[in-house]
TrEMBL record:
Belongs to the glycosyltransferase 2 family. CrtQ subfamily. It comes from Streptomyces pactum. This is 4,4'-diaponeurosporenoate glycosyltransferase. Coiled coil: none annotated. The lineage of its organism: Bacteria, Bacillati, Actinomycetota, Actinomycetes, Kitasatosporales. Residues 4-85 form the Glycosyltransferase 2-like domain. Pathway: Carotenoid biosynthesis; staphyloxanthin biosynthesis; staphyloxanthin from farnesyl diphosphate: step 4/5. The keyword Cell membrane applies.
């Protein structure tokens, strides 16, 4: 059984295709949990019609809040975290990554889309240079959203609820295991976002990195485990 977690905010135009692709490649072996992150475009309804096994409604806006809420509804030791705007995710890539993480006892493994710098502006211009300056190595794709995860590892952490979630999770996994395996998946594609979204993402990613290194105080209001 493969458990897929898909955080989604206003993705009604894409979520159905993602779910259909997962069903085509994994069939009855897939359990798909969609986290509808305060959408106002019918994302939840579209996900249900497309065949999601469960739709979790998450009122606090942010990828971290959505992802962790959906993981609480899962039952397996490991889950596959997916973006809601991807195409081309194949069964073998998922199976191999999950098997490696499980066999080696790692908290996190990632599929590397091998994007060009133009297709990954926040990674290229913000995350990678900042991590390099702080002496963090061992990851080419610190923000990649296709991850095989040890569910308990994630739920035990205090993580940013916003776009800083992915990089904070990467840093925590590096602290725990010393590595994050990244396996190439150049056939997987995703959409480009509006420039304004990238600016907000860059700010939140930077804050997450600086907080991990104790260069900014922790934001309890933007924490996946702190009480609201």
């Amino acid at each position: 059984m493969f458990e897929f977690v898909i955080p989604a905010r206003n993705e009604s135009q894409r979520i159905g295709t993602v779910i259909a692709d997962l069903r085509d490649t994994h069939g009855a072996d897939a359990r798909i949990v969609v986290a509808d992150n305060a959408s106002d475009d019918g994302t939840a309804e579209t996900a249900k019609v497309a065949g999601a096994d469960e739709v979790v409604h998450v009122g606090r806006v942010g990828k971290g809040f959505a992802a962790t809420a959906a993981m609480k509804s899962c039952t397996g030791e490991f889950v596959m975290l997916c973006d809601a705007d991807i195409n081309g995710l194949d069964r073998m890539s998922v199976a191999d990554l999950l098997a490696e993480v499980r066999h080696r006892g790692l908290p996190l493994g990632r599929l590397d889309l091998q994007r060009s710098p133009h297709d990954a502006p926040v990674t290229t211009l913000t995350a990678s240079p900042l991590l390099h300056l702080l002496g963090v190595h061992g990851t080419r794709e610190p923000l990649g959203g296709l991850m095989a995860l040890d569910r308990d590892f994630v739920l035990d952490l205090h993580l940013p609820g916003d776009w800083g979630f992915d990089v904070a999770l990467t840093l925590a996994a590096l602290d725990r295991a010393g590595e994050v395996p990244e396996r190439p998946a150049p056939h997987v594609t995703h959409r480009r976002r509006h420039l304004g979204t990238y600016r907000q993402m860059a700010e939140q990613v930077s804050a997450a990195v600086l907080r991990h290194h104790h260069l900014l105080p922790w934001d309890h209001g933007n924490c996946t485990r702190c009480p609201t």
